[in-house]
Amino acid sequence: MIISDHLIVLQIIIPLMAAPFCVFIRNPHFTWALATFVSWICLAISIALIQQVMASGEIVYELGGWAAPWGIEYRVDMLNAWVLVIVTCVGAVVTPYAKLSAEKEIDHDRLYIFYAMLLLCETGLLGITVTGDAFNLFVFLEISALSTYVLISMGKDRRGLTAAYRYLILGTLGATLYIIGVGLLYMQTGSLNIADLAKLIPAVADSRTVQAAMAFMTVGLCIKLALFPLHMWLPNAYAFAPSVVTVFLAATATKVGVYALVRVIFTIFGGVDLLESLQIRDIIIAMAIVAMFAGSAVAIYQTNIKRMLAYSSLAQIGYMILGLSMNSVMGVSASLVHLFNHAMTKGGLFMVMGCVVYRISSAKLDDMAGLGKQMPLTMGAFVLGGLSLIGVPLTAGFVSKWALIQAALEKGWWPVVALIVISSLMAVVYIWRVVEVVYFKAAPEGRTRHKEAPLMMIIPMLIMICTAYYFGINGVTTMNIAGQAAEALIGGLK
Amino acid sequence: VVGVATTSLGLALVIRINEEYGTIEDDEILKQESDA
Fold it and tell me: What's the first-to-final CA gap in chain B, in angstroms?
């Protein structure tokens, strides 16, 4: 079949072409329908791709027939295919949800731009994932970043504007650092192709240029994925962006950032293991652990629940980076499975907040008093999502934390195991604060009774939460995929 | 190309910030935000 040969490139081209169409159509209903349709097609393509990869291994696609390393190639192995599925899954659930939420929180005459930007953002994230070219990765990074700045600034809260501006400055800084690193590598090796770089770097690994390149790329990407202490842009951006934008970004953008970091560390520099030889690994482990604690601790004191969940994301990013820094198959697969599990859990929780904001126009904890009785489904979903965030057994959060703990035990890092458990317990505190106010505090006198959120928002939200539970009970599929991806990565290292 | 796009988007955001806050001074914006 001719189409199946071009699936990889269609994954990018379809949302990319649909975005300008949205601007031409302008009608908010049609643009929404188009965006939903496209996001479902993207999901179908990514599922087809992962099946292809499972059946026949890595897929390589030369753009325009130019052979690598001169031409740009798209390259999909288990890891890329996995991240593609995560991003498109979230996209496919978020766009139906977006309709009502966006109508409420974004000016009516700008809705078509919103859908165009959402599609462009998805294009950028998918592009980062499929590309096999380090420079092309930067281009997609900028496509997703520029559309993200616009999305964040679209809300009715004016603080979204300053949050977007702050993100623009820091995001551009991160991307610039990354591209400086790529430039240094190009100077040293004459290649931009990731697979080619992986082969060429061991010969020149001793040079200061390559080491500097590694430093630039790592720090640049860490800004993008908001690893503590480079996270300053994230909390406000998530808190003041329109709810649906927060759902999409929280569940995809940082995950793709982690993916890019994995590619840099384990593929581009896979042959030389610079993290170990330059002893950067200890620094990264320390930052990951501080992120786990600082994120959770700050989350406990937040009064805006969207902001609280944003800080909790920082802590979760800490877990992912901790897994990577273990440099073992177990550790990396724990991180990779957490990408998916956290995407579903946090996406579901932010969707709950989207429903709350839709009804009560506020994300403040005090305003949520008594909502447990008035919006039982929404708040029930919050409790379920919260349990998964904490990592209670039978939830997806448990599967990944268990894997992470096992990986730490395998290394004999007992203190790290204790730290993982303690920081998970901190999540109990901030989730409980919400549960207490929502269920045990009476609604203030004279406040209008709020109805349950509309079904069109409830159903996507429940799909997200149920997925988190399905893959908590049946974690074998996800762990297998993550395990295979991790083995391929670490195998490249040996 | 990326630089031009980023700069123009940044300037557009500055204009929107000026519309909403009535100023582009960082300290005044921070003051307005902490008062809110």
Answer: 38
pTM above 0.80, yes or no: yes
Q: Which amino acid is at A183?
A: G
Instruction: Say yes or no: B31 contacts chain A, CB-CB below 8 A.
Output: no
Burial class (CB in 10 A: 0-12, 13-18, 19+), A132: buried
Considering only CA atoms, which of A42, A234, A206, A242 is closest in space to residue A122?
A42
pLDDT digits (tens, 9 = 90+) for B1-36: 788 988 999 999 999 888 888 888 888 888 887 876
Write the DSSP string, A17-61: HHHHHHHHH--HHHHHHHHHHHHHHHHHHHHHHHHHHHHH--EEE
CA gyration radius, chain A: 21
Helical (H) or strand (E) element with A112:
helix A111-130
Which among A172, A233, A240, A362 is the top mutation candidate for probing chain B, defined by the most B β-carbons within 10 Å of its own β-carbon?
A172
How many helices (H) and strands (E) are present in chain A, helices listed first? Answer: 21, 2
Residue A82: both structure tokens together: 């996995």
A139, A158, A168 member nearest B21 (Cβ): A158
So what's the ipTM on this one? 0.92
Q: Say whether B6 and A139 touch across the interface (CB within 8 A).
A: no
Task: State which H helix or E strand residue A86 sits in.
Answer: helix A78-105
| Interface contact B9-A149, CB threshold 8 A | yes
